[in-house]
Every structure is written in C-alpha cells, then in structure tokens.
Amino acid sequence: MEGSNMESSKGKGWIMKQTWDDLLFLHWPVDAAWLQSLLPSELEVDTFDGLAWIGIVPFEMNRIRFRGFPAVPFASRLLELNVRTYVRYGDKQGVYFFSLDASYMPGVFIARKAFHLPYFKADMVKRKKSQQVDFSSSRTHKGVREATYHIKYQPTSEPYEAKKGDLDFWLTERDRLFIVRNGSVLQGKIHHDKWPLQHAKTDVLLDTLSDHYGYKEDQVITHFSESVTTYLWPFEKVTK
C-alpha cells in the first residue's frame, strides 16, 4: 500500500522518506575492545557472541522527500556508501556511522549541517547489468582523507526474512542511529519493513576505504537487498 495511507500508518513525527535500492551489506568481525577505542566514550560497542562488527554499505537512494513536500526530480536520487558499526546507549541498540560518502553535494551539506552526520562528497558511479551491480566511489571532499572503493556484487539466493536471534537479523535490523555532539547523545529513529535479504557474492576491485577498520576479507559476510522504503525521524537528545 503506497501513498498517504501507508505513510500515516508509520505514525507521527517522521520527517523524511527514502527508498534504498540495490543495497549491499558487507560485514566483518573485529575485536570489541579495539573497536571501543574508535567510538565516542558515551557509546558502548554492541556485540554478537562476543564479537563486534563493522560494515560497508553501498546503495542507491531514490524518491527522497521531506514530509509534506513532493520529491524534487534533480535532488531525489543519490548514491551512498557508508562505513558503520553497532553500539548501545543504555538499553538501546543502534547504528553508529564512521563515514557516509554521497554523490550529491547539496545533500552532503544539508546532512552535515542539519543532522551533524559525517557525510563526505564523492564521485560515484553505479551500473547494473542483469543482477550484477558495479559500484565505485572516490572521495573528493576537501580536508579529509581520500578513500576509494570499487566493488561488484549480485544476489545468489531467493529473498528471505532474517529471524530474530540470528546474526543476519542482528546486523541488519536496526531502528535507530546515534550521534554524539558536544558530549550529548542524540538518536534518530528509523522505520522500514523487514529487509528482503538475499545472500550475495562480491568482488572488491579497489579498496582504500576499509584501511583503518581491521578489514578481514576471509571473514566477510554479505547480504543483498533489492529495495526497501524507509522513514526517518528527527534527532532527539537521549543523554541521561
């Protein structure tokens, strides 16, 4: 069900709607104590069976619009590539972003100023042939370290829903993200239907993005999702 009925069913307060297409989750395990050293002290690393995880996530963002406004054709699509991990604040679990590269400079500017997220401008290209996605990104943002990433990926199974308690559910089904600003913890809630996940195969052709994050090629877990519509709420202060 699309349109206003579907949107109203998500509840009050959401401010932005997006559709994420051809998304890849590429995760690898890391030592929890080491990862904690990379996080703001206000947040605690989240673990599954004692292991922490870092993910690289490339995707295409479509039909972007703020609530009450139509999508603007030239500003309603962009490519994004993020590096993320999983954290706790009190009893709340969420996502923490190390970086978010994006292809549209005005969107990067808005996200940095309005949401205080570590967005960076990048030259990005996505090509899709049959089921294979060819995705490349080269960071061009001034004043930050360069990072290049080129990957090919495609699904290798039928879609399925991850089961609560399983690792793939833990890695993908998160309903909030955290930022820390001036010592205060803020959360932004996210809503989407359950991911229609598929197993995936990948070929990383060039990677200077994961250099600082303990990348372990032989321990990578991958999931593909063709499309999911997402609703985002404004950040709110949750510091105790």
From TrEMBL:
<protein>
    <recommendedName>
        <fullName>DUF2071 domain-containing protein</fullName>
    </recommendedName>
</protein>
<dbReference type="InterPro" id="IPR018644">
    <property type="entry name" value="DUF2071"/>
</dbReference>
<dbReference type="Pfam" id="PF09844">
    <property type="entry name" value="DUF2071"/>
</dbReference>
<dbReference type="InterPro" id="IPR023375">
    <property type="entry name" value="ADC_dom_sf"/>
</dbReference>
